[in-house]
Amino acid sequence: MKEAVIVDAVRTPFGKRDGSFRDTHPQDLAAEPLKALRERNGFEPETIEDVIYGCVSPIGEQGLNVGRLAPMVAGWGDIVPGVQLNRMCGSGQQALNFAAANVMADQHDVLIAGGVEHMTRVPMGSDGGEGSGLTDTYFDHFDERTHQGEGAERIAEEYDLSREELDEIAVDSQRRWGEAWEDGRYDDQVVPVETELEGEEIVIEQDEHPRPGTDLETLSNLPLAFREEGDGFHHPGNSSGIVDGSSALLIASAEAAQAHGWEPMARVVQTEVVGVDPVTMLKGPIPATKQVLEQADLDISDIDLFEVNEAFASVVGAWLEETGASWEQVNVNGGAIAHGHPLGATGAMLTTKLAHELERTGQDRALSTMCIGFGQGIATIIERV
């Protein structure tokens, strides 16, 4: 089996909803990481054998196969094929896992994996249709359909997590992002984007959603988002931010990387995907983590860094309780509560963060995991080379 390596990994800044990217077309946003990867690594378009892009709402401006259109919009001509996939919130990470599997199986040597989501111009849920979006037959097998916010609330109840505990996770996420940004830890992975806003040319260089000065007192006064006061736990301050952004990784076989003179950042060790109860729906990172570790013959103590997507603070709280991992090793440079969760791009972005942090710190292994709508979980282990 061939070895799949991460040669480089980048993302755009994440624009807040109705923020600086509101006049930027999703296809243009999707093209930005591709242009950056080419500039940084000096390849010709024909080197790329496929582009695999995640997108959770592939309709309207995000339709027509954004994976194919992104390299065309990037100016790569018509030679580079592309595909769009949707594993809901795990889409960008699934793109990476599929790309790595292709390399490991000796089907391809050089690919780009990533994702895009413009949540301002194509709002979340746009692809669901009317009503529940489900056939009546679905309810022959499952008693109810919940939304993700209610799933997060039920997880908080199941694990006896208090609102204050969840708010502490949120405050840490914001603080860690602020410290990482000021320390320059995002400099090598976040690429500036030149675009237009209301007819004026602008350059976006920094995430727009974070509030690094957030404190517990501020969060304690925010109204609940999903339940009546006194009966819930989550509010906008301890839930992921709605943002616009894209991310991509250059994936290659070890042999191809050597032939092109590229120095890989990390190799993909193991991937996993699981299904879980679609009612609470967000507990997938727990079994996904356990199974990917078993497949790799590793223990939780063998992992130096973790990214657990902060879709909601209770997802992270439950994962910490079940795995016994240290919070000090998780989301060390801030998470989605701070920088936001651009659905189809997030999974690629989480692995991008880990690859750069392994390289910066000299640590060995990292694990990324995400919860997914309708009850799934996804996980990836990478190792510094």
UniProtKB/TrEMBL annotation:
An example of a GO molecular function for this protein is: acyltransferase activity, transferring groups other than amino-acyl groups
Keywords of the record? Acyltransferase, Isoprene biosynthesis, Transferase
Q: Which superkingdom is the protein from?
A: Archaea
Entry's Gene Ontology BP terms:
isoprenoid biosynthetic process
Annotated Thiolase C-terminal domain ranges read 263-384
Instruction: Report any Pfam family annotated for this entry.
Output: Thiolase_C
Keyword Acyltransferase recorded: yes
Thiolase N-terminal domain mapped to chain residues: 5-254
| Claim: Acyltransferase is one of the keywords in the record | yes
Record-stated family: Belongs to the thiolase-like superfamily. Thiolase family.
| Protein name according to UniProt | Acetyl-CoA C-acetyltransferase
What organism does this protein naturally occur in?
Natronorubrum daqingense
